[in-house]
Amino acid sequence: MLFYLTKRLLISLLTLVVISIIIFTILALAPGDPLGEFASNPAITEEVRENIRKSLGLDQPIYVRYFKWAWAFLHGDMGYSFTSRSPVFGLIIQRLPTTLWVVGIAYLLSIFWAFPLGVIAAIRHNSWLDKGISTISLIGLSLPTFVTGLFFILLFNVQLRWFPSYYDSTLKISSIGSAFEQISQSMMPITVLAIYLGSMLMRFVRSAVLEELNYDYVRTAYAKGLSEIGVVVNHIVRNALIPVVTLIALDIPAIFTGALITEQVFRVPGIGSLLVESIYRSDTPVVMAITFIYAILIIIFNSLADLVYGFLDPRVKYGVEDGN
Question: pLDDT for 206-218, tens place per residue?
């Protein structure tokens, strides 16, 4: 087990180094200039722009800038934004609570409704219940979040006037009324995300459970006189969770890095909208920090998923004897 964890750690570190090099190189060579907004300002001379470029380190070779960034990142310094000159870490921390609130709750809701419906649809395969659930999930998965978001705005804001169409980031929760306003302005973005994420997860759960139904151990369990609930809960679901855990583990990093499209539609000031704004402004330090954090989270949760496999399936062992 220790050998496996050590090897896994080394592979993860090497992967992060390669990812950081690729991301940094792409961002450095990408079109766009963080000083482009000064180009149309006659008060900013070429000499001043060149001095600003030197102060930002943009006059140095790419490999020098990369090593400086990597060394600073290892010490917890993500650099400063080119546009606001604020610490990148502070910008991310400022947006993180909103992202965790909206995307986190949406993800929990998607698991809450998608998992039981996926199991029910698989158990009642080819029934009207299965077809109804599958049709609803297919619609939810086929519609992009910006289409669903615009539909929700037209229905619940323009027509019914139940919920606001945009997210007020200045709202402070200090009373029951303000708490109700916070919930009200979060309803539409959370629901839109929960529908999309849940539809994808539900179809995956249904497929995983449906595959398990064809194995001999399921027929053996029924032959022993076990109830349907006992077979489903104690045997089928546990084995079907193994591929589902991978999907959930790869999706969890999105809770911390935001939902790009949904945050734009509802003007949610989360990390996703910060990333879009930074890409538009060629703010390389912010884009680099967010994308690299996302890569770190993916590797961490993917490794955790591998460890969970051993709990779900005792046949999965980590050690020298199995070549892993």
Answer: 888 887 777 777 7
* Separation CA 34–CA 280 (nearest Å): 9
Domain covering 96-312, topology? MetI-like fold (1.10.3720)
CB-CB contact of 189 with 103 (8 Å): no
Query: What are the backbone angles phi and psi of residue 80, rounded to the nearest 5°?
Result: -125, 145
Element (H, E) at 19: helix 2-29
Helix then strand count (H, E) for the chain reads 15, 0
Torsion 5-6-11-15 (CA) sign:
positive
Predicted structure pTM score: 0.74
Low-confidence residues in the chain, pLDDT < 70? 1-5, 8, 32-50, 52, 56-58, 228, 234, 257-258, 308-324
Query: What count of other Cβ atoms lies within 10 Å of the Cβ of residue 69?
Result: 21
Instruction: Give me the residue spans of the domains in the chain.
Output: 96-312
Residue 80's SS3 state is: strand
Q: Which SS3 state, helix, strand or coil, does residue 30 take?
A: coil
Alpha carbons within 13 angstroms on the beta-carbon side of residue 23 total 22
